[in-house]
Amino acid sequence: MDQLGAMRAFVRVVQMGSFSAAAREQDTTQATISKKVAALEKKLGAKLLSRTSRELSLTEVGADYYENCVIILSELDEAEAQVRSQIALPSGLLRVAAPVVFGRQFMAPILVEFLNAYPEIKVDLMLNDKHIDLIADGVDVAIRAKQLEDSTLVARHLFNNPLVVVASPEYLQKNTKPQNPDELKNHNCIVYSMLKSINIWHFEKGNNNISVPVTGSFRCDNGDVILQLVLDGAGIAQLPVWMVDEHIRSGKLAMVLEGYISKPLPFNAIYPQNRYVPLKVRCFIEYLKQKLADNPLYQ
């Protein structure tokens, strides 16, 4: 039995939630993946997975073994990557997670260039605004608009995410334009529900930091939907400048509270804290940083 191959199959079944998904990723059959895991269970003399027609779950022993497998395979991949980085171009599958809007607006346009620059790398891009467990989901690098909170991860700063408060001209014709943050309490504020303090907007003016509670009839975990509601005149929102710049220039949106600076969120590239960072990860992060530096909207 190829124990390492069986361990990799077992880990991907757990991470992807099914034998069929792991089989599709490895370009093989579900039966082949199932046989690998069964052979691993036979060698260990323990049941690793509980399987029913509807769901797949780890046994208590399987959960412990899975964590150990992830560590062992990560160490092996690091050792191989270290050797390859000295003799070859970066290669392999790069699994990247990013927020939906950032992935669509910034990452999608540069992926063709990146893949042309590094033809031996394949990219699996996962767009999701929800929190992702990098280890459990097998993610190499995640792009996040927040401070690093997990000591097992490393953060590489990409840019400070500048925010602006915007509304449509139609909304401002019907409602008095706020002149200071406190007046936001009189407006329908559309909030992004993935932030820790979703109903608090933060501003700076001079040496003063201002935090304002806002309320509204709608909140959402997707920036595209919030943007569309603002364009349709449903209310006021605080959004990244790179997301709304074209609409401001076209006149579809107007900036509100121009004299107040919305406190930016840091955008970071997050990856597991290993002794050696795979070359494909380093190349991807450096490529992102270069492209962001070339774009004035991300300054």
UniProtKB/TrEMBL annotation:
One Gene Ontology term of the molecular function aspect: DNA binding
Keywords: DNA-binding, Transcription, Transcription regulation
Keyword Iron-sulfur: no
CDD domains assigned: PBP2_CrgA_like
Gene3D superfamilies, sorted: 3.40.190.290, Winged helix-like DNA-binding domain superfamily/Winged helix DNA-binding domain
Domain HTH lysR-type: 1-59
Keyword Transcription: yes
Lineage top rank: taxon: Bacteria
Family: Belongs to the LysR transcriptional regulatory family.
The protein's name: LysR family transcriptional regulator
Organism field: Photobacterium frigidiphilum
